[in-house]
């Protein structure tokens, strides 16, 4: 692929970080691109490491987490690395043991079901027990090119609470919603604790070298607008505004959120993450053209032919003209994804930049 960045350093000798420029709504020489779950099972070098180590061993060993983080960066022309970790790691720090069961996802031995369980969460200095994440961030930042950004992240309080209460992955979030409706005081106490710990955890990630923070509220789209405002908004707002105040831009991400993007924007975040169920033009029409958006490609597209990948990527890019956008999927990359399609999608982003760049 023939592609040269016009300027690697800006005039004030800051590295040219497309993703940071997009966050500020500044013009870019190419739409920045990265993929959620860009390090993972679709890569054979990841699968090889997983034969020797469990998912949690990879996360908790800074040298291994750093190596996995860099795997997609070595293969592809990406604008950002995302630190290899998981939104559930803070559970361990809160004194709630869990593991990843093969084929089932996360399993908590003792889910939170009553007020006493919330009181027992070990929140004091919980972020200190996640030092392995900060160490991995330092290692990665030390070996990344200056024009590749490093993204830190955490789960938003609602999505993390759903795992704490359900004890694993859920379809209808029955226990979570019932907890919210039937034990509102305990719910608010839980959300308050989670938002405090999460904010401290993310500020530490930023201090260690994360330049952009993504808050994953993956499952918040299952709520009504009323419940979002009442039970979730103040807590995500506390985190997003706290990070913003430290000068670090944020991506506020969820799936199935088409009916609540205005509320999520009001909650906070420099960039709003969207899935593939919404039309970008509609979102910009309702939230304003200056709202930076991230995402929109259906992860399933990457399982198809080269031609359909190119068409789908172009359809998105053609909607973004003159508006701030970070190219990404609408949710995590699927383990069945062929590497070639990831390459094709990135190349399409770069080619489009070549032909559409303002001269
Ligand atoms: O994006 C990245 O490359 C960074 C790494 C990352 C992982 N998880 C690694 C992972 C990130 C950002 C996450 C976030 C995460 N984890 C979310 C929010 C985003 C989303 O997908 O909605 C959620 C809900 C989780 C919780 C989680 N972790 C589940 C439900 C599972 C099991 C399901 C699955 O995909 O296997 C995980 C495991 C997990 N986290 C894997 C990876 C690479 C697979 C682990 C493996 O078996 O190797």
Topology record:
Blueprint: H1 18-23, H2 44-52, H3 55-60, H4 62-75, E1 80-82, H5 89-93, E2 98-101, E3 105-108, H6 115-119, H7 131-143, E4 149-155, H8 157-166, H9 174-182, H10 184-208, E5 212-216, H11 225-245, E6 250-253, H12 261-267, E7 271-274, H13 280-287, E8 293-295, H14 306-320, E9 325-326, H15 339-356
Parallel strand pairs: 1-4, 4-5, 5-6, 6-7, 7-8, 8-9
Antiparallel strand pairs: 2-3
Helix pairs in contact: 4-7, 7-10, 8-9, 8-10, 9-10, 10-11, 11-12, 14-15
The structure holds coproporphyrinogen III.
Plain-language structure description:
- This protein is of the alpha/beta class and 359 residues long.
- The chain has a single domain, classed as TIM Barrel.
- Helices cover 48% and strands 10% of the residues.
- It is built from 15 helices and nine strands.
- The strands form two sheets. Strands 1-4-5-6-7-8-9 form a seven-stranded parallel sheet.
- β8, α14 and β9 form a beta-alpha-beta unit.
- α8 crosses α10 and α11 packs parallel to α12.
- The N terminus is likely disordered.
- Coproporphyrinogen III binds next to β3.
Properties at a glance:
binds coproporphyrinogen III, two-stranded antiparallel ribbon, TIM Barrel, 7-stranded parallel beta sheet, disordered N terminus, alpha/beta
- Series of secondary-structure elements, N-terminal to C-terminal: HHHHEHEEHHEHHHEHEHEHEHEH
Alpha-carbon distance between the two ends? 21 Å
Reported CATH architecture:
Alpha-Beta Barrel
Number of helices: 15
Q: Spans of 5+ residues with little confidence (pLDDT < 50)?
A: 1-8
Query: What name does CATH use for the topology?
Result: TIM Barrel
